[in-house]
Amino acid sequence: MGRKKNEPDWTVSTTLIILFVSLVLCALIYAFVSAVLTSPVSDSESLAFAEDKGGCCKGIEMLEFWGAVVRKGSDFKFNNSEGCCNACKSMCTGNGPCLCDTWVFCGNRHSCGSRFGECWLKKQKDSLAPEQQETGEAGWTSGLIFGKGEGIIGLETEYGTLRVKLFPECAPHSVAHILELLSLYRCGGCQFYRAESRSGSWDSQVNHLKNAAFGPPFALIQGTLEVEGTIFKKIPHEYCPPFRRGSVAWVGSGPEFFISLANHREWKKQYPVFGSVLPEDLHIAERISTLPTIFDVWNNINVAVLEKPVPLMLRKIKKSGEDFNTKADSA
User: Fold this and answer.
1) Is there a contact between 285 and 322 (Cβ–Cβ < 8 Å)?
2) Complete edge-to-edge strand list for the sheet that includes strand 160-166
3) What is the C-alpha to C-alpha distance for residues 291 and 298, in angstroms, rounded to an integer?
């Protein structure tokens, strides 16, 4: 496209100078971006990411958590739910158990009246089975806080148990669904049915290789968390942390979900991440990704479907240090 007629004429020397400066700037920018995109992510960094929820502070409206009161809301008020959430988080630091794992905020001026702004901080007997009631009115908003080593559930398979750290502050509706599944006697229908390894598109640090295809294969294992005989409620789109190896996310609004086996920066915020597999358990996901598959086409995309789906069960993990995989590894 040519220059506009009212733009001034440039001399040859001026043009060469501008071209030289542009080339230098492009080289510097390319070097910086390359360094960022190819920087390796170690297992320890992945675990740190699993404990860092990106500063989110989200809750669920029209829901009131019960539990032992740590701080009365009658004399403890905020202008918004984020302030109440952060007050609870401030009591959940260090390596010990959280003094507060539940916050309840009254944020609707009409419904709350004189109680508007009240922030109740509470402690659950079991943070994976919080006492609660649906209020049915836009008054109370509640949220959970999981400290270090807490809020971990297990996806139990015949190949071992994948321990997943949940992110309730970023994905409260997603975590609520997972906790509801935990309360069921069984998870009939829950399974992994798709498995695709990293192939040659990612390096040893699980970063995508330059000029390599993004898929297929897509470096993931995919399944469903829908229980047979129940009606699944679509999960609203929630905050999306960056995709790392081990990220657990919904496909759309669920109940299909997947576990990423590589760093998928190209996905950005396309899928809602609600948890992360602990690094020491990712070898189980890798093992599932190598099981026999058959090829299929979904919406013009080539996929690898497991010849034999892998059933899974959800279970509570009381401590992150519990090891359920020793027996599976030795089998």
Assistant:
1) no
2) 293-298, 301-311, 191-196, 220-224, 256-260, 247-250, 273-277, 160-166, 152-157, 313-317
3) 20
* Helix ranges (DSSP H) in 95-160: 109-112
pLDDT confidence tier of residue 202, bands split at 50, 70 and 90: low
Q: Give 71's strand partners.
A: 121
Q: What is the pLDDT of residues 54-63, one digit of tens each?
A: 468 999 999 9
User: Would you call 142 helix, strand, or coil by DSSP?
Assistant: strand
Ramachandran region, residue 254 (left: φ > 0; alpha: ψ -120 to 50; beta: rest): left
147 three-state secondary structure? coil
CA 111 to each of CA 83, 102, 116, 140: distance values in angstroms, whole numbers, following the listed order: 19, 21, 8, 9
For residue 10 the two structure tokens come to: 């440039």
DSSP code string of 75-95:
G-B-SSHHHHHHHHHTTS-SS
- How far apart (Å, rounded) are the C-alpha atoms in residues 174 and 166? 9
Residues 6+ apart with CB under 8 A from 14: none
Q: What are phi and psi of 204, to 5 degrees?
A: -65, -20
What are the φ and ψ backbone dihedral angles of 23, each rounded to 5 degrees?
A: -65, -40
SS (H, E, C) 205-272: CCCECCCCCCCCCCCEEEEECCCCCCCCCCCCCCCCCCCCCCEEEECCCCCEEEEECCCCHHHCCCCC
pTM for the model: 0.77
Alpha-helical regions (H) of the chain: 12-37, 43-51, 81-89, 109-112, 172-182, 282-289, 326-330
